[in-house]
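step: validate -> pass
step: tokenize input -> pass
step: predict -> running
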Amino acid sequence: MTTQSSPGQGAPQPEHGWAFRRREPAARPQRHGDRRQQAEPGTPRDDRTSAEQAHRTVSRPRFDETMPLRVPEPRSDAHEALREPGARTPPYTRPGVEPADEERRHHSGTAEVPGQESLRHPEPVATRPAAARGGERPGRTRQAGRIALVLAVLAAAGGSAAVLLEQQHAAAVASKNLTQVWQIPAPAHDDTLVGSWLTDKLLVVAGTRGGLRAYDLTGGGKLWSAAPSAAAAERGTVPCAMSPKLNSKGVGTVAFGKDGSTCTWLAGVKASTGKILWSMPLTSAGHPSTVTASTYVQGDVATIVSQNFLGGVNTRTGSRVWGYQPRGRYCNAYGWGADGVVLVDDYCLDEKTRFTLTAYDAKTGKVIWRKAESAHTDVTHILSGSPLVAAVHTARQDAVRVFDDRGDGRKLAVGDDELTSGNTSEADHSARLYGTVLATPATAAGGAAVDGFDTTTGAKLWTRPSTALAIPAPGEDKEDGTVYAVTTSGPPQLITIDRRTGRTTPVAGLPKGSGNGNFTAGTVYLTPDGGVLELSSLGSDGGVRFYR
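step: predict -> pass
step: emit ->
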């Protein structure tokens, strides 16, 4: 029996038209005929409530052998909010962790400090007669109260309280200030940042209303705007996805469509000139629907992950390097990508192992590891490609895990924080490794924060509230590099964060931005000359500002 399926599924495809093939309804094997009326076995039987099981059943479609490869839809309105810049979502890790994880957190020095929830500056003592005060100046009693509180907390909780007290106070004021050199107004109030690249000479920005354009770092003048061919323009000229990085030859990938949500074609772009080197369609007669997509560059291979296509292409020519091949002939697959890796969760009706989670090398398409699962696994964020750090959702739990080369995962002690790959915007990719420490944007109870984790133990090392993570300057993005961030409340400052202790050091004061004041969402870059670039995620927040 033969059948034709969606892109990358089924038998190997001929070189021409490798991205797409016409789909035809395919009969299931006779030996599975008794399953024709059965729903895809989604959630394993456990002690979850019936409401939760119903939620899983509704959020996963019934198996359909004609379905193309696609990324699963968000499970709820809360998850849908991930697509809206600045939206808040519930934590990915539910309260309550495994005893083993609590034990690791205790030994790593991240245990809760007794009385932490009530820690505050002491109230002034009642007024006493002057003779009793011994001529002390006003405020000395308050200082004594602070010292007493420090000693009491230190006695109860040990040296870790010092870190807590330090984090309760605002960072010291920087000795120098940066001034705004230039600003690029947003092309429209409703412009949404899709992505950006920074080199030593220019900034490339993609937005839903401004298109793909580049600016000179010296004065902010426009250097070029991408000009798609007439044929490509018919498919849409609005950027909808952009690789987080350029390769060593200054080439990146950008997907375009007729709006900022769905994509119809992919292009290789030379950052220095804006020249479109090649293009390929992401729709066809067999797959006419426009879809969401993501794209990444690793060396001379660019990956594209979408409902219509999953594979790698040459960054110089756009020719095929590899294409996804499913485990069986009757499979549904769901893909997610990052720099260097592609994760695929699949369900194959004709395989003994129905559910698997597989990691693929993004450059070659080879399997790195494959794990049998009891049900579907959703990946909400990939925070690092090597080692692979991902926020995953299963029927039993939500967790952020560090995966080894066998697919075994170690949980990070996230607690109630929600970790994201960027500063509350899908256009930002500031989460990165500094040695064995993962510094990542987070949403905590008090708002935006930056968290630090030891990826070898899973311990949470520190958290910096009211802070947005910055991307190091080109050439300085190294494992032993410095963690930079900007404060998002109080006087805005550029600061450094010690990757092991979380101790902050002020570098420079920043002027108050336009729009909503301090930077809140989008991308922050450090430039080679020590400047700071702020790219707002929404046009209403002021566009691009450069401080030096």
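step: describe -> The two ends are 67 Å apart (CA to CA).
step: cleanup -> pass
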